[in-house]
Amino acid sequence: xxxxxxxxxxxxxxxxxxxxxxxxxxxxxxxxxxxxxxxxxxxxxxxxxxxxxxxxxxxxxxxxxxxxxxxxxxxxxxxxxxxxxxxxxxxxxxxxxxxxxxxxxxxxxxxxxxxxxxxxxxxxxxxxxxxxxxxxxxxxxxxxxxxxxxxxxxxxxxxxxxxxxxxxxxxxxxxxxxxxxxxxxxxxxxxxxxxxxxxxxxxxxxxxxxxxxxxxxxxxxxxxxxxxxxxxxxxxxxxxxxxxxxxxxxxxxxxxxxxxxxxxxxxxxxxxxxxxxxxxxxxxxxxxxxxxxxxxxxxxxxxxxxxxxxxxxxxxxxxxxxxxxxxxxxxxxxx
Length: 335
Prior knowledge:
This protein is α/β, with parallel strands linked by helices. The chain folds into two domains: about 1-175 and about 225-255, Rossmann fold; about 190-225 and about 260-325, UDP-galactose 4-epimerase, domain 1, CATH 3.90.25. The chain contains ten helices and 14 strands. β5 (about 110-115), α5 and β6 (about 165-170) form a beta-alpha-beta unit.
C-alpha cells in the first residue's frame, strides 16, 4: 500500500514508517522537523513540510498516488498544551481538519490516526482498570481534548463521506530499537523512562516522582508501558485491516497497551537493575490531574492478531538504556 506518514520523523511515527517499509509498503514521510529528527528516517522517504500546507499535501497525494494516511503529526506536550492551548488546537485539531478535507479532495479515503490514552482522563467511571475503548472520556488538558476532537471529526467524515479509519489510543510509548540505532529523543523530555535514565547517567541531579501516597502497590502512580516496536506493529495491523472505503465505510477504535502496568518506582528499580547504577530521585507533591492508574484493555487489537513482544519493564528499559548510552546526544549529531 502507498502510505503517507505524517510526523514520520518523530518518535513513534519513525518506528511505524520503518516497520511499514520492512513489511513491503511504499512510504512517504512528511514532517516539519519541529519535534522530529532527520536521523530517525531514511532521507529518501522524507519530505520536509507541514500538514497545514494543504497544497503540498495535495501534490504528495497525486504525485505518489497515496492510498492511505498514517497520521502522527501533532504537538504532544501536556504542560505546553495548558500554557498555550491556542497552538495545540491549531496545530493538532485545525490542521487535521485541513488534512481530512484534502484527503477527500484527492480521493484518499483511508486513515490510521495516532490518538492517546489522554482522551480518557481521570474522571468518574475511569477508576476501574483496565480501561476499555468505551470507557468515559474526561480529558484533563487541552492536548487530550485536541486529540478527542480529531477522533470525532474522523468519525463524522466516515459517516458523511465514506472515509474508513482506525484510531489507536496508546498508553505510555517507550523503548528503543533492539539494535540500538533508533530511540526516544524529545526536547524537552517529559517521558519517565528517559528521565530516569538521564538521572542514572548523571545528566540530571535527580528525577522527580510525583507522590508516593497513591493507592497502588508501592504508593507511586501506575502506567501501562508499551514498547514502540509493538506500537509499530499495531499500526501495521490497523492499516491492513482497515475497512475498505466506500458508501458503507466504517472504522475501528482500539487501545494499545500490555494490560498490566508498572509503577513509577518499578521503573526506577528497572533502570537501576539494567544499568547497574544508582538512580537519584526526589518525591514531590502530586501533579494536578494525574490519574492514579492507567492500564489498557487491548482485547480489540489482540483479536486482530496483535501481541506485544515486550511485556516486562526490564526488557523495555534494556532497549532504552542501550539507545541512550550509545547516543548521549540523541539524534543531535545527525540533525
